[in-house]
Here is the input.
Amino acid sequence: MQKITRDVLVEKAVSLLENGSVSCVLGWKKGEFDYDITPAVFESKEELVSDFIFDDFCGANFSKYLVQKTRKVEGKILVFLKPCDTYSFNQLLTEHRFDREKVYAVGIPCEGMVDIGKIKAITGDGISSIVCGDTIKVNTIYDESFDINAKDVLLERCINCKSKKHVAYDELIGEEGEVIESNRFDEVARLEAMTPDERFAFWQNELSKCIRCNACRDVCPACTCEKCVFNNPKSGVENKAPANEFEEKMFHIIRAFHVAGRCTDCGECSRVCPQNIPLHLLNRKFIKDIDSFYGEYQAGAEVGSRAPLVNYTTEDIEPCDVFERGND
Amino acid sequence: MQRIGVFVCWCGSNIAGTVDVVAVAEALKKEPGVVFSANYQYMCSQAGQDLIKQAVKEHNLTGIVVCSCSPRMHEATFRKTAAAAGLNPYMVEIANIREQCSWVHKEMPIGTEKAIILGKAAIAKVNLNVPLTPGESPVTKRALVIGGGIAGIQTALDIADAGFEVDIVEKKPTIGGKMAQLDKTFPTLDCAACILTPKMVDVAQNEKIRIFSYSEVTEVKGFVGNFDVKIKKKARYVKEELCTGCGACTEKCPMKKVPNDFNLNMDTKRAIYIPFAQAVPKVATIDPDYCNMLKNGKCGVCSKVCTAGAIDYTQKDEFIEEKYGAIVVATGFNPISMDKFDEFAYNQSKDVITSLEFERLTNAAGPTAGKLLRPSDGKHPEKIVFVQCVGSRCDACNEKGKEYCSKICCMYTAKHAMLTRDKYPDTDVTVFYIDVRTPGKNFDEFYRRAVEEYGVHYIKGMVGKVSPEGDKLMVQASDLLDNKQLKIEADLVVLAAAIEPDKSARPLATMLTASMDTNDFFTEAHPKLRPVESPTAGVFLSGACQGPKDIPETVAQAGAAASKVIGLLAKDKLTGNPCVAHSNELMCNGCSSCERVCPYGAITYEDKEFRMPDRTTQIRRIAVVNPAVCQGCGCCTVACPSGAMDLKGFASEQIMAEVDAICK
Here is the structure.
């Protein structure tokens, strides 16, 4: 389904690596199965040619990897960024989390990534091979084969894609895209329309699935504290599995508050959640509220923008008005 | 482990009346860390303080919890007591069992229970307290006075008199403020100009005082003793240093139809003007909205007639940056707009005027040269109705007016009525009032003279409607004492409009981080004991910006504000507040959230080299707090996503311990 091929990207990476512009490449590498594509660091032409991959499973957003990588690597790092990834890239720059000088960013177009969960829902377990394309061809170890329309199994964040525009890059492959009017807040509106009891039941049901694997936190580009409170022995909540219903909810609600105003809605949290909890909905609720209280604000749309929650203007909404709306 | 002493104060019967102080002392004795517990009638008294000092020595106390009144009242007292006993003053915590217990609860069991809980919270906090040492900062020995009315003038003169430099920033082209527009002043009926203008001249001639007229404060940074202020000097298109104030330009300017705001737009002025004869600085100003030269480049008459060569059509706004040790707010008041009061027909008839407009009509320098004439036809009014409390003392639900009493209207209306009867004995004067409030010195005598000697008709009741009929005004009102409806035919109706703080006050309060009440009056640090200080250190209040005031009261407060400023500027160094923010560099990720929310600009960043566990080094950006600039507001601690920022004396850990103690 992707319009550009891995060969174009490999060629670009090899040429930049060989002429010394960059010292390593952040890209996608084949995993154990066709569908579990893994982020990887490539340091040679050989590695790139044999292992680099770009297909409909390359959802991983590399922006966060730059925080640690730029500190350790001499020279520049080549990073491939899909449009949604560039928002995280900018947001991290706004927060001074890496040195822009140490990165060579190549913007690449994206036609939407697919959700292996949705494919498995059709095929069942035991997938032996997947061939990407507009029609995805899946074979299983039970000698079954499936033809699936890629558009039917897109990741939630791609169905509700907010932008095909790269907001940051040094070089762009393909054409400049546009910001898209998405329906990404429809689901939030549906939750808002519920009674408090219904909403509580909805989240209780979702969040009780959480196994506290911390994948959402580890992948989140807004979660880049030097020491996470959930890893800090002094905090009293270190590496703790939820002991009761209350704690189940608290982890995710605390995290949603933590990234409020900084979350670019990249959707990585929901993509990596092994329990398929729609975590992005918590973040989108905050984004929706911030938009309605302070005017539309897209985190990461530009570097250095002052997020409404860490800014003050005399036009800011009064706390009592926020309270009133909460009662509506 | 701390060794904590608990001291429960009775505050006479203030606390002991509703809180069982003995039970509180007993209960708190069992808390972790507490080694001594006592109660006493007045802990703040010398004997009470001695009790604390003695206990510190006898029981080797390391921390003190005083269960008493608000820390705003006596925290400083007990910190001094601790210091005298050899303890660090920041090892003292106050549990407020007066304002938060005995004064808000009526039943002893409830008050006692809550007092014990608050005591436990304070003990939990002291267990985590560490000794703190305040830093010092220098004092810039110059004051800024914002507003050049009588309040600002008096404050500036008094500060300058003590030998300190003062700058006055006034947004109008001249200082003088509202008092310059008045005719006579109650209760002695001196001419306002006669007593004000000498003071204005004193200001102009005082070497210690600079006047920035036609200027506004646009930015305030820093803190007590060290404010950095940006002042915008608006372009007046006249070089102040060259203009002699001869007035030739103001006579020759062909643009004659400029509304004269000094006379409340009841007559016109030229596009180049000097507001009034005794203006200070006596410098012309061009109104760019009306000047033909500035609008379309055609004219230039003023430039031709100016022998001093002072006209400069290319002048631009100028920004001045200056350092100050103290700031006095003297932004004053304005009458409220009468637009919403349709019942009084203010916008329908020229002969319905406000009291300030009446002042101009009776002022010798006003639009009628002091003759009391109707604005509509210039005739002498034979019947005048004064309406008091227009927009004052309104219901909270009434969106038109203000809930408060504007305080000055009763007296100036009595003055207007009396002066009218004195000058024009043929004029019939009626005053409608809700109450007559005359509590100042010689005020009631003044009002009674208006009634008894000058024959002013005072009628208790409110005017319901004023309607223009022909060249008369029909006034419908109720007489509450006679319980009847009245219809009076009047020639002139004068509305005692409520007064409100100047519109510039709110944005200024934001710049100064000074607090305001719901009516936009500046809040004082303590309504009784610190009436001229704002809660923001180094910011002082003078005049009507703090609440409605007459001239004697304004001048008294102006002097009081000056004395506070002098007390501050006389110090060479200020002891800082040690309860400032600090960043844990191991946790800080340099994201800049704290810097963005810091109202004082106290946070900067540096790249620091860290040695990592694997023996490599990493350079990381981390936040650094300047303790001299930090005011300990704690915004950064909330904004910090990593929990790296914390406040000394109010650490998150301490606050959580307090919450835990309360919830236990």
About this structure: The first helix of chain A runs from residue 6 to 18.
